[in-house]
Structure formats: C-alpha cells, structure tokens
Amino acid sequence: MQFNHLIKAARDREPTAQRSIVDQYSPYLYVIAKRYANDASQAKDILQDSLVLIINNIHQFSGKESDFKAWMKRICINTALGKKRKLSHKNESYPGELIHDKTIAPQVLQELNMKDIIALLQYLPSLQRQIFNLSIIDGFKHAEIARILEVKESTSRTLLTRARKKLQLLIIEQDKIRIR
C-alpha cells in the first residue's frame, strides 16, 4: 500500500492499515525504545505505548514518510522519557571497577558495532543514558535536552561528559574481558 493511502486508511481506523503501520515501523521504533530502556521488557512496554499513541493520534500527522518517521521517533522518545520520569532511577551505577587513566585502543573501536554500544549504554546511569541518547544519537541541543528533562543546560553538558567518560571506561573493560 502506498504511504499516503496507508495513512489515510489508518486515519479512517481501518484495522489492516493500522496493523500494517505497526508491522512496518515496530522494528525501527524498538531500536529507539531499547536505547532508553533498562531491559528488553521495558523496551517492549515503551514500544507498545508508543504504537498506541501513534495509532490514536495519526489524525494529527500530515506530511511525507520521512516526516512520519521523525514524528513517530519523537513520540517514542517522549514515551520513554515519560516512563523514566515515573520510575526516577537516579542512583544506578556500573557494577565493576573503573579505570581512570587509560585510553581506548583504535582496534577496539573498530570491533564494536552499534549493538555493542547500545548494550554498553545500559550500564550508564539512567539520566546520563537519556542525555547521551538525546544529544549524540538523536541530535538534540543542550537547551532542548534541558527543557525535555527539566534540568539545567549545564547539568546536561556535565552529564554528557560523564556519560562519554563512563562509556569509554566500559569499552576498556569489555576489551579486557575479550583478551582474557
């Protein structure tokens, strides 16, 4: 089904069109949800809630397919952040030793893929992970992040720096495990 027809049919509440949207875009949204979730179960909850919001509010969308993906992405991110606010996990920490004065070997970075990095992001404290995702992966500016997460811009910058450092340390730790 052509995109414009699919959207029109979904607006008209046709179940086959709604199912088609869910089937077609769930993998894309699940990857986004995983970046913000603590585990697969939470990612599935974020995905489910996002899809319900998308289907229920599809009448508000107007535009082309690339705009639709951006619109859905925004809904998914807002859903994930809303769940995080409710849970308020601010005291998460990485279980293990942290090495403070090492750098990452270039060959380690070449061996990492996006799946590895997303897995390592799960070890960051919740707020650091959210800021890292919003800034580095989703391209938000610190002013936007501060507004979305209700923190100061300076807090956003500081936590992004900490997230980057902790991620580097996690990569080093992962490299040590591979060598053993």
Attribute tags:
single chain; 180 residues; mainly alpha; Rna Polymerase Sigma Factor, Chain: A; Arc Repressor Mutant, subunit A; 2 domains; elongated
Walkthrough of the structure:
By secondary structure, this protein is mainly α. It folds into 2 domains: 3-87, Rna Polymerase Sigma Factor, Chain: A, CATH 1.10.1740; 106-179, Arc Repressor Mutant, subunit A, CATH 1.10.10. 73% of the residues lie in helices and 0% in strands. It has 9 helices and no strands. The protein has helices at 3-11, 15-36, 40-56, 65-87, 106-111, 114-121, 126-137, 142-149, 153-179. The protein is elongated. The model is unreliable at 89-110 (pLDDT under 50).
Tell me roughly what share of residues is in helical segments. over 70%
Tally the helices: what do you get? 9
Distance between the termini: 52 Å
Q: Shape, please?
A: elongated
CATH superfamily of the largest domain: RNA polymerase sigma factor, region 2, helix turn helix motif
> What's the number of structural domains?
2
Q: Mean of residue pLDDT?
A: 82
Could you say what the CATH topology of the largest domain is called? Rna Polymerase Sigma Factor, Chain: A
Structural class by helix and strand composition: mainly alpha
Q: What is the level-2 CATH architecture name of the largest domain? A: Orthogonal Bundle
How many strands appear in the DSSP assignment? Answer: 0
